[in-house]
């Protein structure tokens, strides 16, 4: 039975060993299904969009190994944590359209430190794409191996995300 069939059965069955979803479960399931319908697709064409230099060249922390998650700017500054999913088109829009301004206006002058935390759902039912957990692990791998290249990688991945559809 596919996930869609299982969810459909749970939503419509009241007997036969199946239980009705609570209001909270129904709303959460409906939201996930609606969002996944908007985001689906397996188109692997690349847009080869340009990488935002402001973000790609964001200042590295003094000691990159002191942070588990990717960080730009001085560790002693107030930290703004930016959550995103490598496969989310809205996260890609934010990264390519606004993140450069945040880095230029706040991180480079030393007003804040910026930290990125990838949201990847690893319970067997990924929120946005089946490879989102691997994408999150890949990003952390880049941070752990070559933190000085992380932000260029970050911008490249978001700028070249496959189109929706």
TrEMBL record:
Q: Cite the InterPro entries for this sequence.
A: TAT_signal (IPR006311), Thioredoxin-like_fold (IPR012336), Thioredoxin-like_sf (IPR036249)
Q: Please provide the record's keywords in A-Z order.
A: Electron transport, Transport
Q: What domain of life does the UniProt record list for this protein's source?
A: Archaea
Read off the PROSITE patterns from this record: TAT
Residues covered by the Thioredoxin-like fold domain:
78-136
Q: Say which family it is in.
A: Belongs to the glutaredoxin family.
Supply the name of the protein: DsbA family protein
Q: To which species is this protein native?
A: Halorubrum pallidum
């Amino acid at each position: 039975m596919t996930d869609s069939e299982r969810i459909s059965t749970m939503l419509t069955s009241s007997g036969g060993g199946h239980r009705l979803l609570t209001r909270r479960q129904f709303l959460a399931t409906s939201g996930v299904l609606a969002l996944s319908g908007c985001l689906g697709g397996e188109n692997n064409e690349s847009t080869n969009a340009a990488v935002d230099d402001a973000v790609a060249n964001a200042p590295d922390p003094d000691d990159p190994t002191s942070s588990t998650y990717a960080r730009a700017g001085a560790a002693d500054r107030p930290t703004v944590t930016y959550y995103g999913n490598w496969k989310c088109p809205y996260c890609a829009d934010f990264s390519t359209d606004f993140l450069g301004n945040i880095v230029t206006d706040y991180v480079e002058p030393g007003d804040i430190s910026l930290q990125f935390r990838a949201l990847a759902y690893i319970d067997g039912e990924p929120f946005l794409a089946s490879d989102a957990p691997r994408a999150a692990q890949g990003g952390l791998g880049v941070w752990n191996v070559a933190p000085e290249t992380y932000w260029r990688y970050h911008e490249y991945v978001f700028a070249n995300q496959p189109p929706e559809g």
